[in-house]
């Protein structure tokens, strides 16, 4: 794909993410996204075969960026795994507490909506959240190995439970417009990891 075409595609996906995180997927029209991206209306189908393909690409792009952030957190080789884990959870907290707890997580915003609307988007989201849990599990395993983390159960089950805790806390924080649930999630996370 030519550089200009890739940049245009990325501009569309970035604009879509900003709008969709505020309004939801079904409420956003293609023309609104193209206008926000500064892209001519007729060019959408040069980049995406359908709105469903566009939604799938938007979620893939979101997860690629999310994984890059996680990679950046664990790149600090001078930090313990417990420090990596707590930096990750602080990133999660900060992202979800932003804008009066309206957050920027497309999983929180779109999880239920896209599961009903688009099988392709559901599959991408399932794969993305599975990879997040796997990455958290790897941090936990490293923490147990370096002695900075102690858990009472299986690393995968612990990672899965903590991620689910944070997704739920983010939804309730969004409903209440207050980070109280995120504060409690942080406390529980520290207790579970003994970090």
Rg on CA atoms, Å: 18 Å
Please write the string of helix (H) and strand (E) elements.
Answer: HHHHHHHHH
CATH superfamily: Tetracycline Repressor, domain 2
Number of strands: 0
| Percent of residues in β-strands | under 5%
Q: Number of helix segments?
A: 9
Task: Write a brief structural summary.
The protein has 195 residues and is an all-alpha fold.
Keywords:
mainly alpha, 9 helices, transcription, DNA binding, transcription regulation, Transcriptional regulator, TetR family
3D architecture notes:
InterPro entries: Homeodomain-like_sf, HTH_TetR, Tet_transcr_reg_TetR-rel_C_sf, TetR_C. One of its GO terms (molecular function) is DNA binding. Residues 6-66 form the HTH tetR-type domain. This protein has a single domain (50-193), classed as Orthogonal Bundle (Tetracycline Repressor, domain 2), CATH 1.10.357.10. The protein contains nine helices and no strands. It has helices at residues 3-23, 30-37, 44-47, 51-74, 81-101, 106-117, 119-146, 155-176, 180-193. The radius of gyration is 18 Å and the shape is elongated.
Layout of strands and helices, then pairs:
Blueprint: H1 3-23, H2 30-37, H3 44-47, H4 51-74, H5 81-101, H6 106-117, H7 119-146, H8 155-176, H9 180-193
Helix pairs in contact: 1-2, 1-4, 4-7, 5-7, 5-8, 5-9, 6-7, 7-8, 8-9
